[in-house]
Amino acid sequence: MTALAGGYVQSVDWLAIAPPTIAAVAALAVLVADLFLAERNKPLLGWFATAGLALAALLLLPLRAGDRSTFCLTSDPDVCSYRADEFAVVIQFLVLGGALLTALLSMSTVHNRGSKDAGDGDTGAAGDADAGAAAEGGKLPAGEFWFLLLSSAAGAALLPASRDLATLVVALEVASLPAFALVGLRRGDRLSSEAALKFFLSSVTATAVMLMGVSFVYAATGSLHLSRIAAALGHVDPRLDTLAQAGVVLTLVGFAFKTAAVPFHFWVPDTYVGAPIPVAAYLSVIGKAVGFSGLILVTVLAFPAYADVWGPAVAVLAALTMTAGNVAALRQRPERAHSAVRLLAWSSVGQAGYLLVPIAAAGYADSSGDAAHAIGSTVAYALMYAAVNLGAFAVVALVSRTHPTGRLSDYRGLYASRPLAALALGFFLLCLAGLPPGVIGLFAKVTVFSAAVDAGLGWLAVVMAVNVVIALYYYLQWTAVLFRAPAGARAPAGAPAPAAEPTPPATPALATRAVPASLTAAIGLAAVLGVALSGAPQLVLRFASGALL
């Protein structure tokens, strides 16, 4: 800082804020370039957006060296609005890495003339009634898509480094508002418009509730900085205790919506099915990273004095969320022509329940060290989930190029036509289930399970174990479909005729359409990450263990 006119002028630490800043600058550059590029050159926007995300991710490397802060109070330099500590850097790595994979996944979806080509297949289907409408599709303009994706990624990267409630809310909205537009960006598609409207209305309601909670917390403590709120809540005026408790609960509701925790999960299935597949993949990973990082910051940093309030509440939310998600996913059956994206949507709700378990455990921790260890478990699980879930969505995008309805039955015989894609999807599903060879999935679940046990939440550990068993069924069922004989294959002589199953309308063979290089790269990169981490799962825990608040 430098003295000026009896006050102080802060110097901005540009390196600390570089990752979200680079993403935001790239978004503006894409928007301006879109005005001047000819239609045939619009694919360059995608590569420019990918390069911007890669550069933002690379600028995280020098931040691993230490704790950097900026936008601090002139009266108290230790109280800052932005802190690039190890927790922020790890979550920013997850966000920017996930956005980079999403960009690769999106290249084949965003046509160079901004229209939906015959094989992008990002429609999914809620069922037979909606399959045709979803397959119709609509325009997906390149410039707007990349601008919105980069803008949302910038907000998502800003949030984990935010250290006051005002910056948290702004970052949350910067990440969310472009996501609404991304969901409804497919013009002329009824499902896309309906999904965007549901997502928008429910999110706005949750934001309004959260803002009311923030105002209550400010009224009770007189500050918006997380560290000062924590100190003030430790000895709050008894006359304001009820106001403070209401503020804590209402603030948590807003973040619970972003994490798709029950009962704030109702928007997830229809939103994922109606959105383009890359956008659904983005919401399933980056959207959750935003919600969980915000939830961790407000609970562990701002509200530790009210752990007896939010700890049990988050534990109950975890149990309800994992149960509701897995039971609903269990109902998605290949023989009933259900949607693959809808199954992944319900699966993501179940996975959100697992991610909530260590946060609940942090509320029961006896020391800050135990709480930090529990938070590390959530971060480790989120890193695993991001890689394999984006990989699963990438294979879904590949299959949807020739099967726009996106039914689970479309995956029958995938191994016969695209063996590498089938093996990759099978591996991703086994990772999500926590079965070998997906060792990283098993490792992450054991880490979360041990966090619950160490916190004395034996009942929650039992609920988690039951849900893991439930999830095994639908993950293995989908995996088995990949290796079955293709529909219409000739049966061996003398073999009984198989039971009749509903078959989708005739579509081109999977092997007849070339796979875009960017989509192949997305699947390959996710598979390499999953295999590498399954071979050395301790790398994830070691990396996540640095995410200490």
Automatic annotation (TrEMBL):
<keyword id="KW-0813">Transport</keyword>
<keyword id="KW-1003">Cell membrane</keyword>
<feature type="transmembrane region" description="Helical">
    <location>
        <begin position="279"/>
        <end position="303"/>
    </location>
</feature>
<keyword id="KW-0472">Membrane</keyword>
<protein>
    <recommendedName>
        <fullName>NADH-quinone oxidoreductase subunit N</fullName>
        <ecNumber>7.1.1.-</ecNumber>
    </recommendedName>
</protein>
<feature type="transmembrane region" description="Helical">
    <location>
        <begin position="309"/>
        <end position="331"/>
    </location>
</feature>
<feature type="transmembrane region" description="Helical">
    <location>
        <begin position="14"/>
        <end position="37"/>
    </location>
</feature>
<feature type="transmembrane region" description="Helical">
    <location>
        <begin position="343"/>
        <end position="365"/>
    </location>
</feature>
<keyword id="KW-0812">Transmembrane</keyword>
<dbReference type="GO" id="GO:0050136">
    <property type="term" value="F:NADH dehydrogenase (quinone) (non-electrogenic) activity"/>
</dbReference>
<feature type="domain" description="NADH:quinone oxidoreductase/Mrp antiporter transmembrane">
    <location>
        <begin position="162"/>
        <end position="470"/>
    </location>
</feature>
<feature type="transmembrane region" description="Helical">
    <location>
        <begin position="420"/>
        <end position="444"/>
    </location>
</feature>
<comment type="function">
    <text>NDH-1 shuttles electrons from NADH, via FMN and iron-sulfur (Fe-S) centers, to quinones in the respiratory chain. The immediate electron acceptor for the enzyme in this species is believed to be a menaquinone. Couples the redox reaction to proton translocation (for every two electrons transferred, four hydrogen ions are translocated across the cytoplasmic membrane), and thus conserves the redox energy in a proton gradient.</text>
</comment>
<keyword id="KW-0874">Quinone</keyword>
<keyword id="KW-0520">NAD</keyword>
<dbReference type="GO" id="GO:0008137">
    <property type="term" value="F:NADH dehydrogenase (ubiquinone) activity"/>
</dbReference>
<dbReference type="GO" id="GO:0042773">
    <property type="term" value="P:ATP synthesis coupled electron transport"/>
</dbReference>
<dbReference type="GO" id="GO:0005886">
    <property type="term" value="C:plasma membrane"/>
</dbReference>
<feature type="transmembrane region" description="Helical">
    <location>
        <begin position="44"/>
        <end position="63"/>
    </location>
</feature>
<keyword id="KW-1133">Transmembrane helix</keyword>
<dbReference type="GO" id="GO:0048038">
    <property type="term" value="F:quinone binding"/>
</dbReference>
<comment type="subunit">
    <text>NDH-1 is composed of 14 different subunits. Subunits NuoA, H, J, K, L, M, N constitute the membrane sector of the complex.</text>
</comment>
<feature type="transmembrane region" description="Helical">
    <location>
        <begin position="87"/>
        <end position="107"/>
    </location>
</feature>
<keyword id="KW-1278">Translocase</keyword>
<feature type="transmembrane region" description="Helical">
    <location>
        <begin position="197"/>
        <end position="218"/>
    </location>
</feature>
<comment type="similarity">
    <text>Belongs to the complex I subunit 2 family.</text>
</comment>
<dbReference type="Pfam" id="PF00361">
    <property type="entry name" value="Proton_antipo_M"/>
</dbReference>
<feature type="transmembrane region" description="Helical">
    <location>
        <begin position="371"/>
        <end position="399"/>
    </location>
</feature>
<dbReference type="GO" id="GO:0012505">
    <property type="term" value="C:endomembrane system"/>
</dbReference>
<dbReference type="InterPro" id="IPR010096">
    <property type="entry name" value="NADH-Q_OxRdtase_suN/2"/>
</dbReference>
<dbReference type="InterPro" id="IPR001750">
    <property type="entry name" value="ND/Mrp_TM"/>
</dbReference>
<feature type="transmembrane region" description="Helical">
    <location>
        <begin position="456"/>
        <end position="476"/>
    </location>
</feature>
<feature type="transmembrane region" description="Helical">
    <location>
        <begin position="243"/>
        <end position="267"/>
    </location>
</feature>
